[in-house]
Specification:
The chain is an all-alpha fold. Helix content is about 80%, strand content about 0%. It has one domain. The chain has helices at about 1-15, 15-35, 40-60, 65-75, 90-115, 125-170, 175-215, 225-240. The longest helix is centred in the middle third of the chain and has 47 residues, at about 125-170. The chain is globular, with a radius of gyration of 22 Å. The mean pLDDT is about 90.
């Protein structure tokens, strides 16, 4: 019990931890509003206000978050080797595109927040929402591609190590120390795979939410689609940020 409380305190001390908790409030209230809108309009209005307040508070809490993407872009660069022209790897190029899209998303999200609370002209909200959502969708597409590439590489590495362990078991004098290290590596790959799959789930869910802003349509903009997508994203992020 004490261990769980300690982990919760650590989780909520993180910016992402608070964001995932408030995001859970935001999308649960959206689903409840949709469910009770017809039969209990007064209650539905209260949950709608909770949804709007949660969304605006998340935007305020993310102030300056675009600097994370900017810092990632500063650190990315082609490896330099003496006498050779620097070359970008595929993953580096994907990382540049992904972080650039995420930086645009968080940067213009500031103006969206200011326009919705009345500090800036309210007519700017739609334009800022489109630009922010477009950057978000653009970035998440490349994050997902990166994760799938890494998942494939890790699966290949896991198969190689598993085959090596099986061959070692058939030997008369197996290398126990080497086997233990390879077994640890396999377990680490499996743990990383779960985290990557959580990342893919969160990014695909957020991509659906972004598409609802970019090109409104009956599927993406339905309350159930948005609510479920928001909760998938929140809970996948919750899992990834929960202290181990």
């Amino acid at each position: 019990m004490n261990d769980s409380v300690d982990k919760l305190v650590i989780f909520l001390a993180k910016r992402d931890g608070i964001d995932k908790l408030v995001k859970t409030f935001q999308y649960i209230s959206k689903l409840v509003h949709w469910q009770v809108e017809v039969g209990h309009p007064g209650l539905a209005q209260r949950f709608k206000q909770w949804e709007v307040a949660s969304g605006l508070s998340r935007k305020a809490f993310r102030t300056g978050r675009f600097l994370t993407g900017l810092n990632a872009l500063r650190r990315l660069g082609p490896p330099t080797t003496a006498g050779q022209t620097p070359r970008w790897s595929t993953l580096q190029l994907l990382a540049v595109l992904a972080n650039a899209g995420e930086m645009v998303y968080f940067f213009f999200d500031h103006f969206l927040w200011l326009s919705r609370i009345g500090t800036l002209d309210a007519s700017l909200a739609r334009r800022m929402s489109f630009i922010s959502a477009f950057g978000e969708a653009f970035g998440y597409v490349f994050f997902v591609i990166m994760d799938f590439i890494m998942l494939r590489k890790e699966l290949e590495e896991e198969r190689r190590l598993t085959n090596k362990l099986m061959k070692e078991e058939d030997n008369d004098r197996p290398n126990k120390e080497g086997n233990y290290k390879e077994f640890e590596r396999i377990m680490k790959i499996k743990g990383d795979r779960i985290m990557r799959l959580m990342g893919v789930a969160a990014n695909l869910a957020d991509l659906i939410i972004a598409l609802a802003d970019i090109e409104p349509n009956p599927f993406c903009n339905h309350a159930v689609t948005l609510g479920v997508s928001g909760l998938v994203s929140a809970w996948a992020g919750w899992y990834r940020n929960w202290p181990s």
